[in-house]
Amino acid sequence: MLINWGIIGCGNVTELKSGPAFNKVEHSRLVAVMRRNAALAEDYAKRHHVPKFYSDATELINDSQINAVYVATPPDTHALYAIGAMKAGKAVYVEKPMARNYAECLDMIRVSVETGQPLFVAYYRRTLPAFLKVKELIENDSIGKPLMVNVRLYKAYGEQDRFADKQHWHVNPAIGGAGHFYDLASHQFDYLDFVFGPITQVNGMASNIAGYYSAEDTVSAVFTFASGVTGTGSWSFVVDKQSEEDSIEIIGTKGKIKFPCFDKGDVEVVSEKETERLNFQNHENISFYLIEQVVGTLRGKNECVSTMYSAARTSFVLEEIVKSYYKRE
Q: Based on the structure, what is the number of domains in the chain?
């Protein structure tokens, strides 16, 4: 079985991270792309040697040659296009976060169940070598029994965030669901779900301190996994350059593991006897391994590690953390 893909929203995220992988994975090919700007869609198709391009998502969804759709638009249209594709009989692979809010995630799951069309979410860290090694180390008792997790992500503000006429959709809650927190912390929480299972308790505080945009810019949270492992997290997207930090630290009874989630860096394993640094290289198309899993699952050969259920859990956690800021129930 050949998986013929169509991409809705062939923007920057698809240029290297994901788009080329659809033609590199065995039994998979990219046959059409869509962007509202027809000239940009045509340009993408020519540069990536894609046979067809559209400026209307409905036309791509109804293309009889396509049997799977990758939704790579901003979150406000994830549910719209994913549901439309599943109702048209297509499998769906959607960018993260899964949707703008948890309610939309539940709608997507409901349609997937009703139509029988599978739905996957692009949390590719579940397939990257460094992150798989960390999971293996924990399962092999390398740091003893896990006790707690500390997550820190501090990023400097950018010009796009400071000035209203340049602001990116990442800081427009009507499009992204919240601010940079949803876009970036979603990867961190999804990975921790992969390692420790679902979070059963979560509380958070979000605020806007710098005042550059309407979304939250600084966030704190505490959370607990079903296993009893506890966690804390802090995020800020308006620090100075010298204060930037990107780390996940997992502390156990016999040591700890520390590694970045986004920056290039080593996995540091600290035990009673030594400190070991492990270095890993990703595929040039960082989504390749997950797309390979998705294709294998669609062909009945394996099970994908990033499901609509795990992704929806992450969206629930994110929403719980920021809900008081947005006055959400």
A: 2
Domain annotation covers residue 60: yes
Say yes or no: 293 and 194 in one domain. no
267 and 152 assigned to the same domain: yes
Shared-domain flag, residues 97 and 137:
no
Strand order in the sheet with 230-239: 199-207, 218-225, 230-239, 146-156, 245-252, 255-259, 267-271, 275-278
Residue 99 within any structural domain of the chain: yes
Cα dihedral 197, 123, 292, 119 sign:
positive
Element (H, E) at 102: helix 102-115
**In degrees, to the nearest 5, what angle opens at C-alpha 218 toward C-alphas 252 and 124?**
55
Side chain identity at residue 267, one-letter code: V
- pLDDT by position in tens, the chain (length 329): 999 999 999 999 999 999 999 999 999 999 999 999 999 999 999 999 999 999 999 999 999 999 999 999 999 999 999 999 999 999 999 999 999 999 999 999 999 999 999 999 999 999 999 999 999 999 999 999 999 999 999 999 887 677 666 778 999 999 999 999 999 999 999 999 999 999 999 999 999 999 999 999 999 999 999 999 999 999 999 999 999 999 999 999 999 999 999 999 999 999 988 999 999 999 999 999 999 999 999 999 999 999 999 999 999 999 999 999 998 76
CATH number for the domain harbouring residue 155: 3.30.360.10
205: number of CA atoms within 13 Å, CB side?
Answer: 5
256 beta partners: 251, 270
Q: Are residues 140 and 254 in the same domain?
A: yes
Residue range of the domain that includes 140? 129-281
Residues 258 and 133 in one domain: yes
* Assigned domain for 148 exists: yes
Q: What is the strand order of the sheet 119-121 is part of?
A: 52-54, 28-34, 3-8, 68-71, 91-94, 119-121
Computed on alpha carbons and rounded to an integer, the radius of gyration of the chain in Å comes to 20
Residues 40 and 113 in one domain: yes
